[in-house]
Amino acid sequence: MIFAKTRTLAFAVLTAAATVGLLSQPAAAQGKTWRHALLNAKADAGFFMMSAKRGFAEKQGLKLDLLQVKDDQIGLKALIAGEVDSFEGGPQGVFAAVARGADVKIIGCHWVVLPHGIYVRDDIHTVADLKGKSIAVSSPNTMPDMLARFALAKYGITPDQVKLAAVGGDRERYQALAGGVVEGAVVSNEYQPSMAKGIHLMIAGPDAVPNFLRVCMITSGKVLAERGDDAVRFLAAEMQALRYALSHKAETVALTEEIIHSKPGDPRPAFVYDDAVAHHAVDPELPIPAAKLEWMQEQLIKAGKLKTPIPLAQVSAPEYREKALKLVNAGH
């Protein structure tokens, strides 16, 4: 395994706690290694892994090693433990970590519109019908957990009026809903094209919480201090890869199919791609949208997850993203 020489007890614990997959570039790849954690591959993997799988990182002088984890919290723990140089996940965990004294920074956000929603059994006709029902989410402070809380709050439903059950990743949550274990679940829209009978979308994430950021690139102050130039090149590679992905549908869909080993005729990769493009969900310039981050802080405070607002300058480092954008626009 790629971390065999530096494996620590902390990483062993993380590995035991999650289903982890490691993806490396060919041995011939040259450059400094950048270790990056991201969520387990799904029908949007072509976007998320384009940089590592199609040579964009190598063009920036980096060998990108990817660590797949089941949720944001494991990626955050791996970063804080020094097992990865960056991870991508929801920014809500960053605020909670910084509030506890962790030195973690948002350096760019690429999936800026949620593709998720709350799906329910067909005997659930209104949002009010969810009272007293079980809704499959993920670990506390992860995107599915917070999406459920924020979206339900919009309809006047508090967390104590439902049963939020931590059920792992999208696949597990969808299976729990399809199997009748829960009455509702937060899952990605990738299941819509082949949705099981008896299930429908109750609350669309983009409609209920339009300011909710799905995925940001996150690193630590320590990594930036020691490897600032590499962080710039990592972001530049991601920018170039996302620009390519957004303008090359066939290649991106094919990469997704390759990564998730989809069966012939699987409609999900193309559906997810088209939906992302139609909703401008992916931004290749990796912005750090202050208004959306401030909104997310407000919701965390209302939910009792954060006591007071944290200055955005304390949780972000925009200068690395700005340098990366100049590098890309200059043709490097």
Description:
The protein is an alpha/beta fold. It has helices at 9-17, 45-48, 50-53, 56-59, 72-80, 92-99, 143-154, 170-178, 205-208, 221-247, 249-260, 268-278, 290-302, 312-315, 318-329; strands at 21-23, 32-39, 62-69, 86-89, 104-111, 116-121, 134-137, 163-166, 184-188, 199-204, 215-220. α10 crosses α15 (318-329) and α11 packs across α12 (268-278). The strands form 2 sheets. Strands 1-3-2-4-11-5 form a 6-stranded mixed β-sheet, sandwiched between helices. Mean pLDDT is 89; it is low at 1-29. The protein has 2 domains: 4-113 and 212-329, 3-Layer(aba) Sandwich (D-Maltodextrin-Binding Protein, domain 2); 116-208, 3-Layer(aba) Sandwich (D-Maltodextrin-Binding Protein, domain 2).
Name the CATH superfamily classification of the largest domain: Periplasmic binding protein-like II
- Main beta sheet, described? 6 strands, mixed
**Distance between termini?**
31 Å
Q: Give the overall form.
A: globular
Mean pLDDT: 89
Any idea of the CATH topology of the largest domain?
Answer: D-Maltodextrin-Binding Protein, domain 2
Q: What is the second-level CATH architecture of the largest domain?
A: 3-Layer(aba) Sandwich
Strand neighbour order, sheet with most strands:
1-3-2-4-11-5
Helix content: 40-55%
Radius of gyration: 19 Å
Portion in beta strands? 15-25%
Order of helices and strands: HEEHHHEHEHEEEHEHEEHEHHHHHH
Question: Mind telling me the CATH class of the largest domain?
Answer: Alpha Beta
Structural class designation: alpha/beta
Q: Tally the structural domains.
A: 2
Query: How many separate helices?
Result: 15
Tally the beta strands.
11
> Regions with pLDDT < 50 over 5+ consecutive residues?
1-29
